[in-house]
Amino acid sequence: MTTTTADPFRWLEADDADVLAWQRAQAAAAAETVGAWPHLNVLAGLLGRLGGGPPPVLPVPAAGRWFRAEGADLIASTEPLGPGDTVARLPAGERAAWLAPSPDGTVLAVGIGQGGGEENAIRLLDTGSGEPLGHGPDRLLFDALLGGVSWLPDSSGFHYLGMTAPVDRFEQAIFRYDLRSRTEHAEPIPRPSPDYTLVQAGDGRWTVAAHGLLTPLPVAVHDRADPDGGWRPFLTSVPGVDGPLVAGYPIGDEYVAWTDVGAPRGRVVAIRFDADDPGDPSAWRELLPEGDGVIVALLRTRAALYTVELVDGRWSRVRELDGAGGRVLPLPPRVSVRTGVAALHALARPGSAPELLLPSSSPSRSWTVSGWRPGDQVPRLLADATTGLPGAVVEERQAVGADGTLIPYTCLYRPDERGQRPRPTLITAYGGFYRALTPEWSDDAAAVAASGGLHVWAHTRGGGDLGREWWEGGRRGRKQTVLDDLHAVAADLVATGRADPSRLAVVGRSHGGWLAGAAAVTRPDVWRAAVPLVPALDLVTDLRTPYGKYVTELDWPDGDAEEHVAALSPYHLIRPGSYPAVYLAAGDRDPRCPAWHARKFAARLQEAQQGPGAVLLRVRENAGHGLTSSAAERRRDAAEWLGFVFAELGLVPPAAP
Fold it and tell me: Which of 365, 493, 525, 615 has a Cα-to-Cα distance from 69 of 20 to 30 A?
């Protein structure tokens, strides 16, 4: 059945001159409204002083050196973050989306961003001269999630996931590029799909194609020792399991992986490449049984394997695996280790590193990078925190969900001489795609706390915070549960006197942007302000686009029944009435949540708004989903949307001492 809801703002889906003029007028109005708040410059200064930024981008190892980008300079050093030599310099205006040095260290593949979006081109540089090699693949990559290219162990070439059509069609395939002949061909990997596929060349004979961004499976394998052999299916399904996660690395004659099959919190297993039935879990060799923590990543170095686990849905624990089950690394308490945006992304880290690099932070202390080698007694500090929030309180709490389930949430605030009191409160949540929302350092969270407010991370169902069952509890037909959990957290904050009920705001990015938009239109009585950032808000139209259909099939109601999606589509839920103040932000080059989502929602809500709250829209030109934004761009954007929230909640940022 097709939904026939009237859509008076369909014209805003186009990217023509009329829409651009309307969009720019909206941006000017947003800038004027926020700019009239007298404390905007002070807030921008506070964000600059906090300046802990996003998690650091880790260097990439090859041939005894570590490669990293510092602005336009491409640096190689003998220590992961130590001083080094500039091996190449990018032309003015170019930015490296990713780096991938060849195993012998002679060639550096670099992803060059295209016009502010996520798509990027492959450039090959000679690390000796710094000059381009003058050849390489012509096709673009959709994004940088898989680290660009996957080199063959002998440095003769690489595999990559390239686009086979314009970006809006979301069509990709695996290609192999030969460095010597300067030719490429599409790899005939079994079970092609629009989902992501990562090729992993092991140190031995086996190359594996792992398919699936959220729940990877090693769907195909190639024996490099057999010159006449091709790709053959390996683990394409597990009987009785919908979307099993089996994410790992080819090591020797086995695929060593973290899996949620038979273990909702995760375990580590080894599957032989010559197994009669790789999909039979009873034949898998267990290396680490399910424990009390939730495994969120399996990382590999040259010498060891490590699991990154979540304890109580919040804090990270890292375990070095050995024959006895593993040793827990002595990290500081209550820190969050950043591993990647999805399971397949974490696997894209090169496994040849001599040392495990761990970027970690806490809500009150910005990012550090630590190094660890087997046999170490303590991690060595490679990069210390640049800022923090001394004296801040980090509080762990639980709300009772609509069905009686306990929903964790984490609070950050600064105590004052008056003690605990209801505070202006900003809640952030995500609640989707098996991704955990960890309470890590955030400049905007720290700014809220530094200004006398309360910042809250709501660990709703739909994410991976508490394992597979937590994801399934807010997935597909249970999506309403994500909204219910968010509102349960808001209610608990008010009931316990932590939050001022008249000064509650919600912010979310991407899937969290859907959540913030849905909260604003379904429970407008709860919120003073809502900020959907790079959101998907018209789910019905999204179903009819290639990327939107792909995402829907991952995490939303199954099938072609648009009425099921429309019931949770914020754009379609708007009716004339009183709504909170809303600030929407998007990028006009965003392939994941195109700007028309925010445009249509803003227009419809502006027409329907009968309350005093402003509805503002800022579409950044030549910008994408935020994954490639610089620290300066992030601070610029945060100053505007956070200034909007501060003005609504009555927060005043502290001036520089």
Answer: 365
The values of phi and psi at residue 614, to 5°, are -75, 150
Please give the residue range of the domain that contains residue 47.
23-52+422-649
Residue 565 lies in a domain: yes
Has residue 151 got a pLDDT over 60?
yes
Q: How many CA atoms lie within 13 A of 575 on its CB side?
A: 4
Average the pLDDT over 181-190 and give the result: 93
76 vs 230: CA distance, rounded Å: 36
Give the distance, in angstroms, between the CA of residue 620 and the centroid of all CA atoms in the same chain. 20
Distance CA 597, CA 9 (A): 10
State how many domains the chain has. 1
DSSP string, 29-89: HHHHHHHTSTTHHHHHHHHHHH---SPPPPPEEETTEEEEEETTEEEEESSTTS--EEEEE
In a domain, 139, yes or no: no
Q: How many CB atoms lie within 10 A of CB 637?
A: 19
In Å, how far are 493, 517, 553, 566 from 486, measured between CA atoms?
A: 11, 12, 23, 20
Tell which residue, 156, 255, 282, 260, has the closest CA to residue 200. Answer: 255
Report DSSP letters for 104-147, one per residue.
Answer: TSSEEEEEEE-TTSS-EEEEEEETTT--B-S----SPBS-STT-
Residue showing tokens 């495990």? 356
CATH of the domain at 472: 3.40.50.1820
27: Cα separation from own chain's centroid: 26
Residue 486, in any domain of the structure: yes
pLDDT at 119 over 70: yes
Q: Is the pLDDT of residue 1 over 50?
A: no
| H or E element that contains 446 | helix 443-450
